[in-house]
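Example (one chain per record):
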Amino acid sequence: MGTSNKARRVAGLIAIGFGALSLISGGTTLLGGLDMGRVVPVVLWFNTLAGMAYIAAGLALWRGRRWAFALSLTIFAATLLVFAIFGLHIAQGGAFEMRTVLAMTLRCAIWGMIACLAHQIRVTPPRG
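Predicted structure:
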């Protein structure tokens, strides 16, 4: 297995794991089983539903599908948009948790890197 195959598989596993954790924590919070403090509903709903897209992107990366780039880029752009909406909420004096700022920063960074990797896969598909 070449370096690019290893990288895409690691990225795929990270995306799948991240998606599963997002679905579990978000779903548990939405169902009232977990108190996350001052939740911003749009962020909670987005992160929970995006968990499914994370898993789909992870599987696409794992399998070396060319469309993994489009999905990863869409996830990245949508995450940036929700982060901006969250920032507007904060600027207007809305209640929030600092861990949400950190989590959204992490999500943006991870999906930016995954989208870049997926672009490389799209440009040079795996051999074999």
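Caption: Residues 3-123 form one domain.
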